[in-house]
């Protein structure tokens, strides 16, 4: 039998979420602490079949499958609200998985219909933000971000067919990109003349990714032209990015 898509195969997603948390201000509201755990499920979560061709595909419904997703984790935040030095530390420990069976009993679906990491799965997510007011003219800030690398699928072997080397892949999203992190710093100058006018202007001097971390946007595999060995090639989009801007408001 040949499977034929129906008009209502692409169904709307239905999500349910439960959460429980704790919130408290202490030391005369100078500090705030927040802790929350959550569990979320999504029905009719679509994913593409292995080897799907999306370019100029007029029957896109034939290369997608309906499945379900679940996400759960724990979120924590500690915030300092007052004083010349303020900021927060936020950390999330979580897991996001998807299950995508075949359309019929004869189809294996994705990863044999078993749970696998979704594209949004990031086990660790840490953010540290700080701001220091030196005086009425100068304010300094810093922001550090660290996240578990995005799930990806690496080849686990290869074979040769008619002189062409073809990679073979394991289960979907079993691997991860390297850990993602960067530190951004800024200095904001508010001229004294702007403080007495009806409009307020400020200069912002900032540096994104100050230590030049080469975070991987993707990793591709190809044959080294000189050695003939397989090589992993990292694609990084941004290095150190300095900037200067002027903001004003009435």
What can you tell me about this protein's structure?
This protein has strands spanning 14-26, 31-48, 64-80, 85-99, 116-117, 124-133, 138-147, 151-152, 155-161, 164-169, 175-176, 180-189, 200-208, 218-223, 230-235, 241-249. It has 250 residues and is mainly β. Strands 1, 2, 3, 4, 5, 6, 7, 12, 13 and 16 form a ten-stranded antiparallel beta sheet that branches. A two-stranded antiparallel ribbon has the order 8-11. Strands 9-10 form a two-stranded antiparallel sheet. The chain is extended. Residues 1-8 have low confidence and may be disordered.
Write the SSE topology.
Layout (H helix, E strand, L loop, with lengths): L13 E13 L4 E18 L15 E17 L4 E15 L16 E2 L6 E10 L4 E10 L3 E2 L2 E7 L2 E6 L5 E2 L3 E10 L10 E9 L9 E6 L6 E6 L5 E9 L1
Q: What class do helices, strands and sheet pairing give?
A: mainly beta
Order of helices and strands: EEEEEEEEEEEEEEEE
* Count of extended strands: 16
Shape: extended
Q: Helix tally?
A: 0
Oligomer: single chain
Portion of residues within helices: under 10%
Radius of gyration: 25 Å
- What portion of the residues fall into strands of 2 or more residues? over 45%
Separation, N- and C-terminal Cα atoms: 69 Å
Let me know the largest β-sheet: 10 strands, antiparallel
Give start-end ranges of low-pLDDT stretches: 1-8
Average residue pLDDT: 87
